[in-house]
Design a protein that fits this description.
The protein is an alpha/beta fold. The protein has 9 helices and 14 strands. A hairpin with a 2-residue loop joins strand 13 (255-260) and strand 14 (263-270).
Length: 319
């Protein structure tokens, strides 16, 4: 396969490194700035024109440019007969998403969106416990994810990154939408959404600094999801409460605990010491490549990913 990487920031470089580790080296780059790669010594053909890249007939396009450019870039790549992998969130709005879906269908191409947290061993264990009914009927969930935005990319001015700029699709509601995707993946369609934004930190950004999202699912489950850019040290946790117990996940401790009415001390599942954050990115790309080779359904389709974007946008509008 020939891969086209559209946008070569930190996530673009991560995908390049992972493709190399998986044995793929036929890679071309689409980027506006031809600076030296920060973490990769390999030299790849690089073009500032997407049309010129597509003339090289890549098989797969990995879309890693700023969020507001995802859909238009993906449409052009799909029209050029590329399978599409799009980093989350798929977009900052729902415009032209139908056109992308139609183009992919017409070209018989597969698309996947990069919600790699679905491949975390603790999340997979949590899902298994829920499906087995270990905590009974699910009642509610509470999720907290807070990080300090200036620490994400210390080598650049955080105020100029896409995550900090509203018209580029930034802000925690969209940029940290993994937690929304996980909630929908675990519990299904969302009914009501209420969002409360917060601009009270010292960050110099034009997006919300934090948002609290209250959601109810069609199943009757309710949830509270807090996302912010100002916590240091970072915090990331998910708590799911059921009629017979609860599950607690701590991302930074790499563990998930099952408490039940019959075992109040809890059953702990921790990931292997060999597990690394990057393993999730490798797993998602491996499955995407497998899906292409064997004509399988996308594990995280565009329609799936649009549900989390829809919730984020509804939360932002409701404030």
């Amino acid at each position: 396969m020939k891969f086209l990487i559209c946008g070569v920031g930190s996530i673009g470089e991560r995908h390049i490194r992972n493709l190399i580790s998986l044995g793929f080296d036929d890679i071309i780059l689409f980027r506006k700035r031809n600076n030296p790669l920060r973490t990769i010594s390999n030299i790849f053909p690089t073009y500032s024109s997407l049309r010129e890249c597509l003339d090289k007939k890549p098989d797969v396009a990995i879309i890693c440019n700023p969020t507001h450019l995802h859909i238009e870039t993906a449409i052009q790549c799909a029209k050029a007969n590329c399978h599409i992998f799009i980093e989350k969130p798929i977009s900052h709005n729902l415009e032209k998403c139908d056109e992308l879906i139609l183009t992919l269908k017409q070209k018989n191409k597969i698309a996947m969106v990069g919600y790699m947290m679905r491949y975390h061993p603790c999340i997979l264990k949590m899902k298994k416990w829920i499906e087995k009914g270990d905590i009974g009927k699910i009642i509610s969930l509470r999720s907290v994810w807070g990080e300090y935005l200036p620490d994400w990319h210390p080598w650049e001015d955080y105020r100029k990154t896409y995550a900090a700029v509203r018209n580029m699709g930034g802000g925690p509601a969209l940029t940290l939408s993994h937690e929304l995707d996980l909630a929908i993946w675990l519990f299904g369609k969302v009914n009501k959404v209420v969002g409360m934004t917060n601009y009270n930190s010292n960050l110099e950004i034009d997006t919300e600094h934090a948002i609290d999202i209250l959601i109810s699912f069609e199943s009757g489950i309710t949830g509270n999801i807090h996302l912010d850019y100002f916590q240091k040290p970072p915090k990331r946790s998910i708590e799911i409460v059921g009629s017979k117990g609860r599950i607690e996940f701590d991302y930074y401790l790499n563990r998930v605990i099952l408490y039940t009415h019959d075992d109040i001390n809890g059953k702990v599942f921790s990931v292997d010491k060999e597990f690394e954050h990057n393993d999730m990115f490798v797993s998602e790309i491996e499955q995407f490549i497998y899906t292409i080779k064997y004509g399988k359904l996308s594990p995280i389709s565009i329609k799936d990913s649009l549900m989390s974007v829809d919730v984020a946008l509804r939360a932002l509008r409701s404030d």
